Amino acid sequence: QHRELLERAARSLGVFTEADLADWWRMPSALVKPRLRELEAAGIVEPVTVEGWHSATGRATPAWRHRDATAPRRFETETVLSPFDPIVWYRPRAERLFHFTYRIEIYTPAPQRQFGYYSLPVLVDDAIVARVDLKADRPNRTLLVQSTWAEQHAPGDLGERLLPALREAAAWRGLERVEVRPVGNAAHRLPNRFEVG
Question: Which terminus of the chain faces fewer neighbouring Cβ atoms within 10 Å, N or C?
Fold first, then answer.
C-alpha cells in the first residue's frame, strides 16, 4: 500500500527528492527510503540530476524522475494561491522550483511583518511572481488588497497579469469590487479601484 501511494506521489510530482516524496503523504523517511529503492529497482522511477538543486555544501541533491514524467506544456494562467496549495505547501520544494521563500505572517507581530498579515503567492504562467495581502470587506462587498509585492523575476506586465487573478479571488468570495492600497513595491502597477465583472 505504501509503495502504491508513493508511486502515485512520484507520478504527481514528476521530478522529486526523497523529502518531496515523503511530504506528499506525510510519511516518515524511514518508511519512504526502502519503498523508493523498490520503485527504482522496478524501473518506475530513475535517478536524475537537476540543475540548481544542491545542498548548502554544493553537492547535488539526490533526485528522481517518474518514468512517465514529461516536459510540461506551456500554459498561461493567473491565480492567487492558497497557503495550502501543493505548489507552496512544502516550502523546500517551492524554494527549489520557484526560488520563492514563503511564510504566512498571521502569527508574526505586526511591526515584524514583511509582506502582510495574510500574504498569498500569485502564480503567473509557470512562475510565482508576486504576493498580495488580501482581506474581504464583506459589508462593502470589496476585496481589499492590503499590499502588493513583486518578486525579483516578475514580468514587466505584472499589473495586467494581476488583474484577472484579483478579480477571480474577489468573485470567489462573492465580492463586487477590488480596492488596492498603496503599500508594497508593486501596488503602483494596479488601478486603485476596479470592478470584478
Answer: N
